[in-house]
Write a structure and sequence with these properties.
Blueprint lengths: L3 H20 L4 E4 L14 E9 L2 E9 L2 E8 L9 E5 L11 E4 L5 E4 L5 E4 L7 E6 L5 E5 L4 E4 L7 E3 L3 E2 L6 E3 L6 E6 L2 E6 L8 E6 L8 E11 L3 E12 L4 E5 L8 E5 L5 E6 L8 E6 L20 E5 L2 E7 L2 E3 L13 H5 L6 E7 L1 E2 L1 H5 L3 E2 L2 H9 L6 E5 L4 E5 L3 E5 L5 E8 L1
Parallel strand pairs: 24-32
Antiparallel strand pairs: 1-6, 2-3, 3-4, 4-5, 6-7, 7-8, 9-10, 10-11, 12-21, 13-18, 14-15, 15-16, 16-17, 18-19, 19-20, 21-22, 22-23, 24-25, 25-26, 27-33, 28-32, 29-31, 30-31, 30-33
Length: 429
Protein backbone atom coordinates (compact mmCIF):
# COMPACT_ATOMS: atom_id res chain seq x y z
CA UNK A 1 0.00 0.00 0.00
CA UNK A 2 1.38 3.38 -1.08
CA UNK A 3 2.29 5.74 1.70
CA UNK A 4 1.14 9.34 1.82
CA UNK A 5 4.63 10.70 1.01
CA UNK A 6 4.90 8.44 -2.07
CA UNK A 7 1.44 9.50 -3.32
CA UNK A 8 2.42 13.15 -2.83
CA UNK A 9 5.68 12.55 -4.72
CA UNK A 10 3.83 10.97 -7.64
CA UNK A 11 1.36 13.85 -7.72
CA UNK A 12 4.18 16.41 -7.77
CA UNK A 13 5.93 14.46 -10.56
CA UNK A 14 2.73 14.40 -12.64
CA UNK A 15 2.23 18.12 -12.02
CA UNK A 16 5.81 18.76 -13.08
CA UNK A 17 5.37 16.75 -16.29
CA UNK A 18 2.17 18.61 -17.14
CA UNK A 19 3.92 21.90 -16.50
CA UNK A 20 6.81 20.90 -18.77
CA UNK A 21 4.35 19.80 -21.46
CA UNK A 22 2.57 23.12 -21.37
CA UNK A 23 5.86 25.02 -21.31
CA UNK A 24 6.80 23.47 -24.66
CA UNK A 25 3.85 25.14 -26.42
CA UNK A 26 5.10 28.07 -28.49
CA UNK A 27 2.34 30.40 -27.37
CA UNK A 28 1.52 33.79 -28.84
CA UNK A 29 -1.17 36.46 -28.75
CA UNK A 30 -1.67 38.99 -31.53
CA UNK A 31 -4.07 41.90 -31.14
CA UNK A 32 -5.95 43.39 -34.08
CA UNK A 33 -4.67 46.92 -33.58
CA UNK A 34 -2.28 49.47 -35.04
CA UNK A 35 -1.70 50.87 -38.51
CA UNK A 36 -3.22 49.29 -41.57
CA UNK A 37 -0.99 47.79 -44.26
CA UNK A 38 0.00 49.93 -47.28
CA UNK A 39 -0.25 47.36 -50.08
CA UNK A 40 -3.08 46.68 -52.52
CA UNK A 41 -5.38 43.75 -51.80
CA UNK A 42 -8.27 42.17 -53.68
CA UNK A 43 -11.67 43.72 -52.99
CA UNK A 44 -9.85 46.84 -51.78
CA UNK A 45 -9.57 45.34 -48.31
CA UNK A 46 -7.75 47.00 -45.41
CA UNK A 47 -5.45 44.66 -43.52
CA UNK A 48 -3.04 44.20 -40.64
CA UNK A 49 -0.26 41.69 -41.25
CA UNK A 50 0.62 39.19 -38.50
CA UNK A 51 3.98 37.48 -37.83
CA UNK A 52 3.09 33.93 -39.04
CA UNK A 53 4.65 33.89 -42.50
CA UNK A 54 5.95 31.48 -45.16
CA UNK A 55 6.51 33.15 -48.53
CA UNK A 56 4.27 33.88 -50.35
CA UNK A 57 1.76 33.24 -47.53
CA UNK A 58 1.10 35.35 -44.43
CA UNK A 59 -1.64 35.54 -41.83
CA UNK A 60 -3.54 38.82 -41.56
CA UNK A 61 -6.61 40.49 -40.19
CA UNK A 62 -8.51 42.10 -43.08
CA UNK A 63 -11.82 43.83 -43.67
CA UNK A 64 -13.91 45.16 -46.54
CA UNK A 65 -16.39 46.77 -44.12
CA UNK A 66 -14.93 49.01 -41.38
CA UNK A 67 -14.78 47.26 -38.02
CA UNK A 68 -15.58 43.78 -39.41
CA UNK A 69 -12.38 41.75 -39.71
CA UNK A 70 -11.57 38.25 -40.88
CA UNK A 71 -8.57 36.24 -39.76
CA UNK A 72 -7.16 35.13 -43.09
CA UNK A 73 -4.24 33.80 -45.06
CA UNK A 74 -3.01 36.04 -47.86
CA UNK A 75 -1.03 34.98 -50.91
CA UNK A 76 1.54 37.13 -52.81
CA UNK A 77 4.85 38.80 -52.00
CA UNK A 78 5.57 42.48 -51.51
CA UNK A 79 8.26 42.73 -54.18
CA UNK A 80 6.02 41.48 -57.01
CA UNK A 81 3.84 44.61 -56.81
CA UNK A 82 0.84 42.30 -57.27
CA UNK A 83 -2.08 42.62 -54.93
CA UNK A 84 -2.74 40.15 -52.14
CA UNK A 85 -5.41 37.50 -52.57
CA UNK A 86 -7.17 35.84 -49.63
CA UNK A 87 -7.06 32.04 -49.81
CA UNK A 88 -8.41 30.98 -46.39
CA UNK A 89 -10.51 32.52 -43.63
CA UNK A 90 -11.02 31.25 -40.10
CA UNK A 91 -14.28 33.11 -39.48
CA UNK A 92 -16.02 33.59 -42.85
CA UNK A 93 -19.46 34.30 -41.37
CA UNK A 94 -18.51 35.85 -38.01
CA UNK A 95 -16.29 38.95 -38.42
CA UNK A 96 -14.51 40.40 -35.39
CA UNK A 97 -13.84 44.05 -34.41
CA UNK A 98 -10.68 46.01 -33.74
CA UNK A 99 -8.75 44.72 -30.72
CA UNK A 100 -9.85 41.13 -31.29
CA UNK A 101 -7.12 38.61 -30.42
CA UNK A 102 -5.58 35.65 -32.22
CA UNK A 103 -3.67 33.35 -29.89
CA UNK A 104 -2.13 29.95 -29.43
CA UNK A 105 -2.90 29.22 -25.80
CA UNK A 106 -0.83 27.21 -23.30
CA UNK A 107 -3.28 24.29 -23.61
CA UNK A 108 -2.65 24.10 -27.38
CA UNK A 109 -5.92 25.60 -28.58
CA UNK A 110 -5.72 28.14 -31.43
CA UNK A 111 -8.32 30.81 -30.70
CA UNK A 112 -9.85 33.91 -32.28
CA UNK A 113 -11.67 35.97 -29.66
CA UNK A 114 -13.54 39.26 -29.37
CA UNK A 115 -12.04 42.01 -27.17
CA UNK A 116 -14.27 40.85 -24.29
CA UNK A 117 -12.72 37.38 -24.48
CA UNK A 118 -15.69 35.66 -26.11
CA UNK A 119 -14.41 32.94 -28.44
CA UNK A 120 -15.50 33.41 -32.07
CA UNK A 121 -13.51 30.52 -33.54
CA UNK A 122 -11.08 27.88 -32.35
CA UNK A 123 -9.40 24.72 -33.59
CA UNK A 124 -10.63 22.67 -30.63
CA UNK A 125 -7.13 21.35 -29.97
CA UNK A 126 -6.83 21.97 -26.23
CA UNK A 127 -4.85 19.29 -24.37
CA UNK A 128 -3.88 17.44 -27.57
CA UNK A 129 -0.11 17.91 -27.25
CA UNK A 130 0.04 20.84 -29.69
CA UNK A 131 3.41 22.59 -29.51
CA UNK A 132 3.50 25.04 -32.44
CA UNK A 133 1.82 26.70 -35.40
CA UNK A 134 3.46 26.64 -38.83
CA UNK A 135 2.57 27.75 -42.35
CA UNK A 136 3.88 25.20 -44.84
CA UNK A 137 5.15 26.20 -48.32
CA UNK A 138 1.84 24.87 -49.72
CA UNK A 139 -0.18 27.40 -47.71
CA UNK A 140 -1.38 24.76 -45.26
CA UNK A 141 -1.61 26.19 -41.71
CA UNK A 142 -0.81 23.37 -39.30
CA UNK A 143 -0.72 22.74 -35.57
CA UNK A 144 1.81 20.00 -34.85
CA UNK A 145 2.53 17.96 -31.73
CA UNK A 146 5.84 17.16 -30.06
CA UNK A 147 6.48 14.35 -32.57
CA UNK A 148 5.78 16.54 -35.60
CA UNK A 149 2.39 14.97 -36.31
CA UNK A 150 -0.37 17.29 -37.51
CA UNK A 151 -3.09 17.70 -34.90
CA UNK A 152 -5.04 20.23 -36.99
CA UNK A 153 -4.59 21.68 -40.49
CA UNK A 154 -6.37 24.37 -42.47
CA UNK A 155 -6.40 22.08 -45.54
CA UNK A 156 -9.18 20.16 -43.77
CA UNK A 157 -11.25 23.34 -43.46
CA UNK A 158 -11.44 25.17 -46.82
CA UNK A 159 -13.78 28.13 -47.18
CA UNK A 160 -14.19 29.22 -50.81
CA UNK A 161 -10.77 28.07 -52.05
CA UNK A 162 -8.68 24.95 -52.70
CA UNK A 163 -4.90 25.34 -52.83
CA UNK A 164 -2.77 22.82 -54.71
CA UNK A 165 -2.87 19.54 -52.78
CA UNK A 166 -6.14 20.36 -51.01
CA UNK A 167 -9.18 18.08 -51.31
CA UNK A 168 -12.91 17.79 -50.86
CA UNK A 169 -13.69 14.43 -49.28
CA UNK A 170 -16.07 12.61 -46.93
CA UNK A 171 -14.94 12.95 -43.33
CA UNK A 172 -13.55 16.39 -44.15
CA UNK A 173 -14.93 19.34 -46.06
CA UNK A 174 -17.26 18.40 -48.92
CA UNK A 175 -18.02 21.87 -50.28
CA UNK A 176 -16.72 25.36 -51.02
CA UNK A 177 -18.99 28.33 -50.28
CA UNK A 178 -18.69 31.78 -51.85
CA UNK A 179 -18.00 34.88 -49.76
CA UNK A 180 -21.08 36.95 -50.47
CA UNK A 181 -23.27 35.39 -47.83
CA UNK A 182 -22.87 31.94 -49.31
CA UNK A 183 -24.87 32.62 -52.47
CA UNK A 184 -22.98 29.94 -54.41
CA UNK A 185 -21.39 26.62 -53.53
CA UNK A 186 -19.41 23.79 -55.10
CA UNK A 187 -20.32 20.42 -53.60
CA UNK A 188 -18.68 17.00 -53.79
CA UNK A 189 -21.30 14.50 -54.92
CA UNK A 190 -21.19 10.84 -55.93
CA UNK A 191 -20.83 11.75 -59.63
CA UNK A 192 -18.31 14.59 -59.25
CA UNK A 193 -18.51 18.30 -58.45
CA UNK A 194 -21.84 20.13 -58.61
CA UNK A 195 -22.31 23.92 -58.57
CA UNK A 196 -25.36 25.36 -56.79
CA UNK A 197 -27.13 28.67 -56.33
CA UNK A 198 -28.28 29.01 -52.72
CA UNK A 199 -30.68 31.39 -50.97
CA UNK A 200 -33.26 31.48 -53.76
CA UNK A 201 -37.01 31.35 -53.30
CA UNK A 202 -37.18 27.67 -54.25
CA UNK A 203 -37.09 25.10 -51.47
CA UNK A 204 -33.68 23.74 -52.47
CA UNK A 205 -30.48 25.02 -54.13
CA UNK A 206 -30.50 25.23 -57.93
CA UNK A 207 -27.91 23.28 -59.92
CA UNK A 208 -26.10 25.40 -62.52
CA UNK A 209 -22.91 23.50 -63.38
CA UNK A 210 -21.04 20.18 -63.19
CA UNK A 211 -17.41 19.16 -63.66
CA UNK A 212 -14.92 16.37 -62.86
CA UNK A 213 -17.67 13.84 -63.49
CA UNK A 214 -17.27 10.06 -63.43
CA UNK A 215 -19.46 7.05 -64.19
CA UNK A 216 -18.28 5.44 -60.94
CA UNK A 217 -18.78 6.73 -57.41
CA UNK A 218 -16.50 9.66 -56.63
CA UNK A 219 -15.10 9.75 -53.09
CA UNK A 220 -12.74 12.71 -53.33
CA UNK A 221 -11.62 15.57 -55.56
CA UNK A 222 -8.09 16.99 -55.17
CA UNK A 223 -6.79 20.15 -56.81
CA UNK A 224 -3.36 19.25 -58.20
CA UNK A 225 -0.49 20.62 -60.27
CA UNK A 226 1.57 18.09 -62.24
CA UNK A 227 4.70 18.94 -64.27
CA UNK A 228 4.70 17.79 -67.90
CA UNK A 229 8.22 16.65 -68.77
CA UNK A 230 10.36 15.23 -71.55
CA UNK A 231 13.86 13.75 -71.46
CA UNK A 232 15.49 16.73 -73.18
CA UNK A 233 14.10 19.86 -71.57
CA UNK A 234 12.57 18.62 -68.32
CA UNK A 235 9.32 20.33 -67.34
CA UNK A 236 7.85 22.23 -70.29
CA UNK A 237 4.40 22.86 -68.77
CA UNK A 238 2.43 22.34 -65.57
CA UNK A 239 -1.00 20.73 -65.72
CA UNK A 240 -3.65 22.01 -63.31
CA UNK A 241 -6.02 19.11 -62.62
CA UNK A 242 -8.88 17.91 -60.54
CA UNK A 243 -7.84 14.41 -59.46
CA UNK A 244 -10.91 12.19 -59.12
CA UNK A 245 -10.72 9.56 -56.38
CA UNK A 246 -10.41 6.72 -56.02
CA UNK A 247 -8.12 6.24 -59.05
CA UNK A 248 -10.55 7.60 -61.63
CA UNK A 249 -8.25 9.85 -63.60
CA UNK A 250 -8.17 13.62 -63.83
CA UNK A 251 -10.10 16.53 -65.26
CA UNK A 252 -7.59 18.92 -66.85
CA UNK A 253 -8.38 22.58 -66.19
CA UNK A 254 -5.34 24.39 -67.61
CA UNK A 255 -1.76 23.86 -68.76
CA UNK A 256 0.40 26.94 -68.09
CA UNK A 257 3.88 26.89 -69.64
CA UNK A 258 5.52 27.80 -66.34
CA UNK A 259 5.62 26.48 -62.78
CA UNK A 260 2.00 26.79 -61.67
CA UNK A 261 2.37 25.19 -58.24
CA UNK A 262 1.22 28.42 -56.57
CA UNK A 263 -2.34 28.20 -57.88
CA UNK A 264 -5.74 28.00 -56.27
CA UNK A 265 -9.29 27.08 -57.29
CA UNK A 266 -12.06 29.34 -55.99
CA UNK A 267 -15.83 29.72 -56.20
CA UNK A 268 -16.16 33.44 -56.86
CA UNK A 269 -18.76 35.83 -55.49
CA UNK A 270 -20.47 35.87 -58.89
CA UNK A 271 -20.69 32.05 -58.98
CA UNK A 272 -17.91 31.40 -61.48
CA UNK A 273 -15.34 28.72 -60.64
CA UNK A 274 -11.86 30.03 -61.42
CA UNK A 275 -8.18 29.21 -61.05
CA UNK A 276 -5.66 31.94 -60.25
CA UNK A 277 -1.95 31.23 -60.67
CA UNK A 278 0.85 33.20 -59.00
CA UNK A 279 4.26 33.14 -60.69
CA UNK A 280 6.72 34.25 -58.05
CA UNK A 281 9.84 34.90 -60.23
CA UNK A 282 8.31 37.91 -62.01
CA UNK A 283 8.29 41.36 -60.43
CA UNK A 284 5.15 42.69 -62.12
CA UNK A 285 1.68 41.28 -62.72
CA UNK A 286 2.49 37.94 -61.12
CA UNK A 287 -1.17 36.84 -61.09
CA UNK A 288 -2.90 35.19 -64.04
CA UNK A 289 -6.41 33.77 -64.34
CA UNK A 290 -5.59 30.38 -65.87
CA UNK A 291 -9.08 28.82 -65.85
CA UNK A 292 -12.72 29.84 -65.53
CA UNK A 293 -15.66 27.45 -65.82
CA UNK A 294 -17.78 30.14 -67.50
CA UNK A 295 -15.48 31.68 -70.08
CA UNK A 296 -15.56 31.35 -73.84
CA UNK A 297 -11.77 30.94 -74.19
CA UNK A 298 -10.53 29.50 -70.87
CA UNK A 299 -13.46 27.44 -69.70
CA UNK A 300 -16.08 24.85 -70.51
CA UNK A 301 -19.25 26.93 -70.80
CA UNK A 302 -20.18 30.23 -72.46
CA UNK A 303 -20.05 33.26 -70.17
CA UNK A 304 -23.69 33.96 -71.06
CA UNK A 305 -24.68 30.80 -69.14
CA UNK A 306 -23.31 32.25 -65.88
CA UNK A 307 -26.51 33.00 -63.90
CA UNK A 308 -25.18 36.30 -62.53
CA UNK A 309 -23.56 37.58 -65.75
CA UNK A 310 -26.27 40.23 -66.24
CA UNK A 311 -27.05 40.73 -62.57
CA UNK A 312 -30.66 40.24 -61.53
CA UNK A 313 -31.97 40.02 -65.09
CA UNK A 314 -30.82 40.56 -68.64
CA UNK A 315 -30.29 39.16 -72.11
CA UNK A 316 -26.73 38.05 -72.95
CA UNK A 317 -25.31 37.56 -76.44
CA UNK A 318 -21.66 36.94 -77.38
CA UNK A 319 -20.47 37.51 -73.79
CA UNK A 320 -22.23 40.89 -73.48
CA UNK A 321 -25.41 41.96 -71.68
CA UNK A 322 -27.27 43.46 -74.63
CA UNK A 323 -30.85 44.09 -73.47
CA UNK A 324 -33.31 44.29 -70.59
CA UNK A 325 -36.43 42.30 -71.56
CA UNK A 326 -39.72 43.99 -70.58
CA UNK A 327 -43.37 43.51 -71.51
CA UNK A 328 -42.96 46.55 -73.75
CA UNK A 329 -40.01 45.04 -75.62
CA UNK A 330 -36.22 44.96 -75.30
CA UNK A 331 -34.68 48.01 -73.65
CA UNK A 332 -31.04 48.92 -73.16
CA UNK A 333 -29.48 46.85 -70.39
CA UNK A 334 -28.23 48.38 -67.13
CA UNK A 335 -27.49 47.01 -63.67
CA UNK A 336 -30.96 48.13 -62.56
CA UNK A 337 -32.63 45.66 -64.96
CA UNK A 338 -34.90 43.34 -62.98
CA UNK A 339 -37.80 40.95 -63.39
CA UNK A 340 -41.33 42.35 -62.94
CA UNK A 341 -42.37 42.84 -59.33
CA UNK A 342 -44.84 40.18 -58.24
CA UNK A 343 -47.08 39.81 -55.20
CA UNK A 344 -45.39 37.80 -52.46
CA UNK A 345 -46.47 35.98 -49.31
CA UNK A 346 -50.17 36.17 -48.40
CA UNK A 347 -50.83 38.60 -51.25
CA UNK A 348 -49.51 36.02 -53.69
CA UNK A 349 -51.67 33.28 -52.19
CA UNK A 350 -54.78 35.32 -52.89
CA UNK A 351 -53.66 36.19 -56.42
CA UNK A 352 -55.63 34.38 -59.13
CA UNK A 353 -54.23 33.19 -62.44
CA UNK A 354 -56.42 35.75 -64.18
CA UNK A 355 -54.51 38.59 -62.51
CA UNK A 356 -51.13 37.62 -64.01
CA UNK A 357 -49.92 37.42 -67.58
CA UNK A 358 -46.69 36.64 -69.45
CA UNK A 359 -44.52 38.19 -72.11
CA UNK A 360 -42.62 35.90 -74.47
CA UNK A 361 -38.93 35.90 -75.39
CA UNK A 362 -37.84 33.88 -78.41
CA UNK A 363 -34.53 32.02 -78.75
CA UNK A 364 -33.34 32.09 -75.13
CA UNK A 365 -32.14 29.62 -72.50
CA UNK A 366 -30.52 29.66 -69.08
CA UNK A 367 -28.97 27.16 -66.69
CA UNK A 368 -32.35 25.65 -65.78
CA UNK A 369 -32.77 24.10 -69.21
CA UNK A 370 -29.29 22.55 -68.96
CA UNK A 371 -29.56 21.12 -65.45
CA UNK A 372 -33.19 21.37 -64.33
CA UNK A 373 -35.65 18.53 -64.76
CA UNK A 374 -38.15 19.53 -67.43
CA UNK A 375 -41.78 18.40 -67.45
CA UNK A 376 -43.68 17.03 -70.45
CA UNK A 377 -46.69 19.33 -70.74
CA UNK A 378 -48.22 21.68 -73.29
CA UNK A 379 -47.56 25.40 -73.04
CA UNK A 380 -50.94 26.20 -71.47
CA UNK A 381 -50.37 23.54 -68.82
CA UNK A 382 -46.93 25.00 -68.10
CA UNK A 383 -48.41 28.47 -67.83
CA UNK A 384 -51.11 27.24 -65.44
CA UNK A 385 -48.50 25.64 -63.17
CA UNK A 386 -46.45 28.83 -63.00
CA UNK A 387 -49.52 31.00 -62.39
CA UNK A 388 -50.49 28.90 -59.36
CA UNK A 389 -46.95 28.89 -57.92
CA UNK A 390 -46.01 31.96 -55.86
CA UNK A 391 -42.29 31.19 -56.29
CA UNK A 392 -42.46 31.00 -60.09
CA UNK A 393 -41.12 34.08 -61.91
CA UNK A 394 -41.75 32.61 -65.34
CA UNK A 395 -40.91 29.50 -67.31
CA UNK A 396 -38.83 28.14 -70.16
CA UNK A 397 -40.47 26.10 -72.87
CA UNK A 398 -39.14 24.01 -75.74
CA UNK A 399 -41.94 24.09 -78.27
CA UNK A 400 -40.87 21.15 -80.45
CA UNK A 401 -40.31 18.85 -77.46
CA UNK A 402 -43.24 20.20 -75.34
CA UNK A 403 -40.84 20.54 -72.40
CA UNK A 404 -41.46 22.92 -69.48
CA UNK A 405 -39.15 24.32 -66.78
CA UNK A 406 -40.62 26.52 -64.04
CA UNK A 407 -38.21 29.29 -63.03
CA UNK A 408 -37.87 30.41 -59.39
CA UNK A 409 -34.90 32.44 -60.68
CA UNK A 410 -34.39 33.94 -64.14
CA UNK A 411 -31.10 35.84 -63.94
CA UNK A 412 -29.18 35.89 -67.20
CA UNK A 413 -30.93 34.72 -70.36
CA UNK A 414 -28.56 33.44 -73.06
CA UNK A 415 -29.47 34.19 -76.66
CA UNK A 416 -29.55 30.99 -78.78
CA UNK A 417 -30.20 30.33 -82.47
CA UNK A 418 -33.05 27.86 -81.85
CA UNK A 419 -36.23 29.95 -82.04
CA UNK A 420 -38.34 27.12 -80.57
CA UNK A 421 -36.58 27.58 -77.23
CA UNK A 422 -38.59 30.34 -75.57
CA UNK A 423 -39.16 31.95 -72.19
CA UNK A 424 -42.29 33.40 -70.63
CA UNK A 425 -41.84 36.07 -67.95
CA UNK A 426 -44.65 36.54 -65.43
CA UNK A 427 -46.05 39.98 -64.60
CA UNK A 428 -49.09 41.37 -62.77
CA UNK A 429 -51.76 42.76 -65.07
Amino acid sequence: MATLPSILARFLLLLSLLSLSQARVETFTYVNEGELGPYITENGADYRALPPFSSPFQMCFYNTTPGEYYLALRMATLRSESFFRWVWRANPFAPVPDNATFSLRPDGDLVLANPDGKIVWSTGTANKDVVRLEILPTGNIVLSDSKGKFVWQSFDHPTDTLLVGQSLRPGGATSLVSRNGGAYSVVLESKGLAMYINNVSSSKPLLYGRLAESSRKVTSITFACEPQTDSDSGAYAYELDLVIGPSQGTAVLARPKYNATLSFLRIEEDGNLVVYTYYDPVDYRAWEKTYAYFYNDLGQVSTCMLPSKCGGFGLCDEEMCVACPTKDGLLGWSESCSTPKLAMGKKCQTTTSSSVDYYKLVGVENFLTSYGKGTDVNVEGCKKRCSSDCKCLGFFYWELESKCWLAPLLGTLAKVSNSSHVAYVKFVK
